[in-house]
Design brief:
By secondary structure, the protein is an alpha+beta fold. It has helices at about 50-70, 110-120, 120-125, 135-145, 150, 160-170, 175-180, 195-200, 220-230, 240-250, 310-315, 325-330, 375-400, 415-425, 440-450, 455-460, 475-495; strands at about 1-10, 15-20, 25-30, 45-50, 75-80, 90, 100, 155-160, 175, 185, 190, 210, 215-220, 235-240, 260, 265-270, 285, 300-305, 345, 365, 405-410, 430-435, 465-470. The relative contact order is 0.13.
Length: about 500
Amino acid sequence: MYLLGCDIGSSSVKASIVDSETGRRIGTDFYPREEAPMYAPRPGWAEQNPEDWWDYLKIAIRGAIVNSGVDPKEIAAIGISYQMHGLVVIDKKQRVLRPSIIWCDSRAVMYGEQAFHSIGDKRCLSHLLNSPGNFTAAKLAWIKEYEPAVYESIDKILLPGDYIAMRMTGEAVTTVPGLSEGIFWDFIENRVSDDIMNYFGFDPSVIPEIRPTFGLQGELLQSVALELGMRKGTPVTYRAGDQANNALSLNVLNPGEIAATAGTSGVVYGINDKANYDQLSRVNSFAHVNHTPLVNRLGVLLCINGVGILNSWVKKNVAPLGITYNEMNEKAQQVPIGSEGLSVIPFGNGAERILENKEIACSIQGLNFNIHNKNHIIRAAQEGIVFSFKYGMDIMNQMGLDIQVIRAGKTNMFLSPVFTEALAGVTGTVIELYDTTGSAGAAKGAGIGAGIYASSEEAFGSLRKIEEIEPDGIKANEYCGAFDLWKERLDEIVK
C-alpha cells in the first residue's frame, strides 16, 4: 500500500510516494527544474498563478510514479502541504479570479495594522493570538478596496493547499489550522472570528466548509484519476501549511519540540500548549495539525523572508559563474568566523514580521575593499541568515519556549556546514538533521488521516537521524561576538 504526498512551494512543487509499511520514500520528483516564477508588479508585491501550481504538481506526480515503479492505482491516500498565508479567490464555477497573493507579498500590511488597532490590541492577541498583520485576511481586504469587481465575483477564498485539494476533488473546503494562519480563527470562541469578518465587512459565505486536518477531505475526481493513472475516489486525507507539515514530518507534535526549515524563507517552529503571544506580533501562533478545542497545540512560528532567496541571489550575482551551492559552502569555510567584520543584514524579501513588518531591504555592513572578497560575502550572507534566526529565537524564548534542540531535514541551507555550525554556536542548541522532506511528511500525514497508521508514533517510527551538530564552546564565543556586532548594525537601521 502506498501514500502520495504533495508539497506546493513557491520555488517548486514536489511529490513523494511512500511505502506505508516501511515508511520509505520510493519515488520523488519536483517541478519546475528551475525556480518557479514569482511576479512582482510593484515593489513589495509577490504573486503566482495557482493554475501553474496545478500543472507543476501533475508533472511532479507523474515523475514520482515513474521513479517509484508502483502501480498508481495502489496509492491509498493523498496528503497536501502548501506555502502558507497565500490567498486564492474563486467564483461559483471554481475559476480563479486573479493571481494568488502569496506569503511574502507585503502590500496588505496597512490593512492588518489598522484592524489590529481598531479591533483592539488586547482582543486581537487574546482571540487571534496575532495581529492581522500581513496575513490572508488583510490581503482579502486589499482586494476589496482596490479590485472591487474581483471581490464582488468571489464565491470562496482558499489557501494554496485548499486550491490544490479542490482541483483534485472538486470540493472547496478548508481546515481550522488553515483559517488560523489566515487570521480568521477565534481561539476563544473556537469559530471563525466575528471581529475580523465584521471589521473588514466580509460576507461569511466566502469561508469554505471546514474539514479535519486528518480525515476525509474529498475524493479524487474521475477526470484527474484518468489523467494521472490513479484510482477514482482515492481519498485526500490530510492537508497543512508547509511549516506545520514540516514539524509533522519531523514528528514535532508536543510542547517544547522545535522544527526548522531554511528554504526560500527560514522558519523556526515550536510547539506550545499555552495560548501565549508576542505583544508586538513579531512571532506568530497558529493552530498546529493536532490542535483541538480541548487540547492546545499551537505552532509558534518565527519566519525570516530573506533566507534561501539571499543565498540564491549571492550565487547568481556575487559568486563565480557556474559555481554550485556545495562549492559556495566550501568557499564560505575558507573565511574566519565573523567574516572579518563583514555583516549582511538579510531582510531583502519584503516586510519582516520580526521587525514589526518593517521593510528595511538587505544591506552589507563593514565592507573593506582591502580585506573582503567574494568568499567573505558568501560567508557573511550565511552568518547573517543565522543571526536573523537567533534574533527571532530570543523573542520565542521571551514567550516561554526553552529551545534546546532543533530538528530539521538535511536539505537547503542545512546542507551548509557553516550554517549549521553557526546556528548551533550562536543559539547554544543541538541541531538534529533527519532524512525527510515535506512531501514525504504529507504522505505520512495522509496515512494517519486515512487510518492506515494508528498514531504519529507509528507513522514516523522509521524517521532516520542523519547527523547531530553540537555547539563548540570556543567557536560559540566567536559567533556570539559576531552576532553582537550584527545586531548593533541592525539596531542602527531599524531605530
